Amino acid sequence: MGFSCGIVGLPNVGKSTLFNALTETAAAQAENYPFCTIEPNLGEVAVPDPRLEPVAALAKSTAIVPTRLAFVDIAGLVRGASRGEGLGNQFLANIREVDAVVHVVRCFSGSDVIHLEGRIAPVEDIETIETELMLADLDSLERRIEPLEKRSRGGDPEAGATLDLVGRALMALREGKPARLIERKDAQEKAFRMLGLLTSKPVLYVCNVDEEHAAEGNAFSRAVELRAQAEGAGCVLISAKIEAEIAVLSRAERGEYLAAHGLHEAGLDRLIRAGYALLDLVTFFTAGPKEAHAWTVTRGTRAPQAAGVIHTDFERGFIRAEVVSWEDYVALGGEAGARDAGKLRLEGKDYAVADGDVIHFRFAT
């Protein structure tokens, strides 16, 4: 299962610079004018996890394969995008395909980078983007009402349930609230996701600050943090300029450079951690002579579905999962030691995979 984040924001907030730095590529242009990103840029990054290497060493694995996070750099949106302004609705469609929205917000001053609306006001920038996404969702939902009502009157229970969700989402949107804030039961979650609403995505705000404020932030970033807290969104502080500079340094040089700016880790690490928390993700491991592999699933994923992330045949033929916690795996010298110590458990179809599990799946072909 791959997880993807769509990077959005107004033009000239540092989206493409950040994308380039995070993916350590120059795939996205980073020019000082609007709409330089003509097509959505795709990039993947390995998710750093210090637990993977010890697992590989104990399993005598030839290869180490970390889990990966995909970034989609979506062109800058502008006021009126939902009506086709700027580069229009083609970019709104890209947002529907991602698991979460990384909203880059300009929290730095400086006249060398123009602001499309001539002022630095991060909360107002957020509201501009959110408004366009809500307007697009309103249009999408309003066009679905009549067909759903016809199906519901015809006795279709699924249409009736969907109509209820649509009605409540419309009410929230008309009140100026994103669809993700509506209350819903676990059983309704799949139907809600099927609506494909732009404002249903979890949001992680990235406050792009200058180098001087990379460690502690500034008044602009604090305003965004307050906004994020109020709506239950994630928020992380990053200097895209610093990230771009460390992207060309060796691993050894990066630590020294970051320390000089009062930072203990790269922005990518902070972004990944915040993203995992926002999406409620956990990582499990598989290990053998060929490779040690990290896999990411949503918390609460059952063992057969976790096996299906590796290969659909594993889910179809699932028999059981042999599970040991990472702590026990390392402390007891690997799978054999954990088995001898009685720490290796046999789990069935109802087992919810936990973060750090080292798992050997048994399945029938």
Q: Could you explain the architecture of this structure?
A:
With 365 residues, this protein is of the alpha/beta class. 41% of the residues lie in helices and 20% in strands. The protein has 14 helices and twelve strands. It has a six-stranded mixed β-sheet, sandwiched between helices. Strands 3-9-8 form a three-stranded mixed β-sheet, sandwiched between helices. It has a three-stranded antiparallel β-sheet with strand order 11-10-12. Helix 1 packs parallel to helix 8 and helix 4 packs antiparallel against helix 5.
Task: Lay out the secondary structure.
Blueprint: E1 3-8, H1 15-23, E2 41-46, H2 52-59, E3 63-65, E4 68-73, H3 90-96, E5 100-106, H4 122-153, H5 157-174, H6 189-194, E6 203-208, H7 219-231, E7 234-238, H8 240-246, H9 251-260, H10 267-279, E8 281-287, E9 291-298, H11 303-310, H12 312-316, E10 318-325, H13 326-331, H14 335-340, E11 345-347, E12 357-363
Parallel strand pairs: 1-4, 1-5, 3-9, 5-6, 6-7
Antiparallel strand pairs: 2-4, 8-9, 10-11, 10-12
Helix pairs in contact: 1-8, 4-5
Let me know the largest β-sheet: 6 strands, mixed
**N-to-C span:** 21 Å
Order of strands in the sheet with the most strands?
Answer: 2-4-1-5-6-7
Count every helix, treating DSSP H or I runs of 4 or more residues as helices.
14
C-alpha geometry: flat
